[in-house]
Amino acid sequence: MFDAIALLLICQLTGEIIHRGLGIPLPGSVIGMMLLIGWLASVQRERPSLTAVSGWLTAHLSIMFVPAAVGLIDEGPVLSRYGIGLLLATAVSTILTMVVSVLVFLWALRRFSSESKNEP
């Protein structure tokens, strides 16, 4: 369990170091996630502890949005000035994300289900 948490934290920390050190315009957590994906792709083995930790984090993901939501309270003047635009942009981007996700899912379903039917 601790090795999985350490792996996640090391990838995130390395991503932050790369972000701040090289000035790459991606958040350090995104760079860390790419490092984790690269590590998972290069080291092929079962990872039950990483699966358990990531499952727990995913199940409690809503708790991690609380600091961001509390931070919005401090932005009252900005929200009162641009709130309608922000809500509209959020709604449109959410709908577009859902439509693109469905289209990608349908494409992948057609592509990979036909390949699995052709295999012996």
UniProtKB/TrEMBL annotation:
InterPro entries named among the record's database cross-references: LrgA/CidA
Signal peptide positions on this chain: none
The record's Pfam families line, in alphabetical order, gives: LrgA
Membrane topology annotation: Multi-pass membrane protein
Superkingdom of origin organism:
Bacteria
**Location(s) in or outside the cell:** Cell membrane
GO CC annotation terms, alphabetical? plasma membrane
Q: What is this protein called?
A: Holin-like protein
The taxonomy runs:
Bacteria, Pseudomonadati, Pseudomonadota, Alphaproteobacteria, Sphingomonadales
